[in-house]
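Researcher: Quick test of sequence recovery. Tokens follow.
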């Protein structure tokens, strides 16, 4: 009957080339991961984190993020000037203690979120702007400003000067007093300065120097050795921390000063500065710990395996002490689903706590927007946890407890 022999293999692509391609792809991915560890070292990378986990250090990004536990620690001391006049001691024109708008609007292109049009604490949940960085009015500072300071800076010791003014703008320039640099320390690797406004093109620089003429009571003049433009990761014009790695400043330098200029007369182009500081930094894992309840955005949950998420049980949620957010673009999306409109935890945190952004930086990757850390301060410090009574009861199906208000 002409029966034709059949084989178990039908027409198709030979498996050998596919196997070779798959093998090459796996080798490429592994090589890329290994290369990234060395290229980004000593900064954080997923591969480096995995290796550390195998050696008994499993806390991943929490070991790589460095936190200013106290933003008032390490504020540099001005030479020959008090804190009330130090920012303009070298010459000031056009800058004033209240030279900031009443509120700071950050466009969506800057914040990766929606427009932040409302007062602090009332913004839309997706604006992607750090808490407490959009201005407003606060306690009177040491130089008479009523600007609300960010990052928990103490108004009794922190002056502020800005170039914004109501009505026609004028060109402004500022040279601060010289600030004494402390001795170099491994846990104080950064020179940091809180600033706001539009910064770019070298309109804010840090000059470093050494003593020139020396009198009986110490240096009376200083020689400028050079200048640096601090790293600014935005978003403008909100308050943020400009930073310079101290390892980039020569060891011979003993003092630094701030030089700022604003020659743009556009009302939206202004800037404000505070004195530099050299804060003590600790890892996020050390500051937040493993026992305090934390609201961890789901985007970064796997990067912080050692931190304890807050407990939600029996319809009652534990009030977190901290919140860990992703970078601005990702946190904008997380804010929306966690908002009151989405039935998320931001509904009750806004009613019970005040978020304060804690300055934090990615170790050896200072220009990276790794995310942010917020400390939750209770609106009512005397509030106590709810007492939960658990039990069971039997009711008819048509029984109603009455309306809820």
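Model:
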């Amino acid at each position: 009957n002409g029966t034709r022999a059949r084989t178990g293999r039908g027409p198709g692509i030979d498996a050998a080339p596919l196997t070779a391609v798959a093998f090459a792809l796996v080798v490429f991915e592994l090589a890329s991961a290994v290369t990234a560890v060395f290229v980004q070292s000593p900064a954080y990378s997923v591969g480096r984190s995995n290796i550390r986990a195998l050696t008994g250090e499993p806390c991943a990004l929490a070991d790589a993020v460095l936190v200013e536990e106290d933003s008032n620690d390490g504020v540099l001391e001005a030479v020959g000037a008090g804190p009330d006049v130090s920012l303009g001691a070298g010459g000031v024109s056009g800058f004033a203690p209240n030279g900031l708008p009443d509120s700071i609007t950050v466009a969506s292109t800057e914040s990766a979120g929606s427009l932040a049009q409302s007062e602090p604490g009332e913004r839309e949940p997706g604006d992607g702007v750090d808490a407490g960085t959009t201005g407003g009015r606060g306690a009177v500072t040491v130089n008479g400003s009523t600007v609300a300071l960010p990052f928990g800076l103490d108004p009794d010791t922190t002056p502020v000067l800005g170039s914004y003014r109501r009505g026609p703008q004028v060109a402004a320039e500022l040279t601060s007093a010289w600030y004494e640099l402390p001795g170099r320390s491994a846990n104080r690797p950064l020179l940091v300065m809180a600033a706001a406004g539009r910064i770019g093109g070298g309109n804010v620089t840090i000059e470093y120097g050494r003593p020139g003429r020396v009198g009986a009571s110490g240096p009376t003049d200083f020689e400028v050795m050079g200048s640096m433009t601090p790293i600014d990761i935005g978003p403008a014009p909100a308050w943020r921390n400009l930073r310079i790695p101290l390892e980039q400043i020569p060891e011979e330098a003993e003092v630094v000063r701030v030089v700022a200029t604003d020659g743009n007369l556009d009302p939206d182009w202004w800037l404000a500065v505070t004195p530099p500081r050299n804060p003590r930094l600790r890892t996020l894992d050390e500051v937040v710990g493993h026992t305090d309840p934390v609201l961890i955005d789901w985007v970064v949950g796997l990067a912080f395996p050692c931190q304890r998420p807050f407990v939600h049980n029996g319809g009652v949620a534990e009030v977190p002490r901290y919140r860990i957010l992703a970078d601005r673009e990702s946190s904008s999306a997380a804010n929306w689903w966690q908002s009151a409109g989405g039935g998320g935890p931001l509904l009750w945190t806004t009613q019970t706590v005040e978020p304060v952004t804690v300055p934090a930086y990615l170790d050896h990757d200072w220009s990276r927007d790794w995310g942010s850390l917020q400390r939750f301060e209770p609106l009512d410090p005397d509030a106590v946890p709810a007492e939960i009574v658990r039990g069971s009861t039997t009711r008819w199906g048509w029984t109603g407890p009455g309306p809820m208000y």
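Confidence is low (pLDDT under 50) at residues 108-126.
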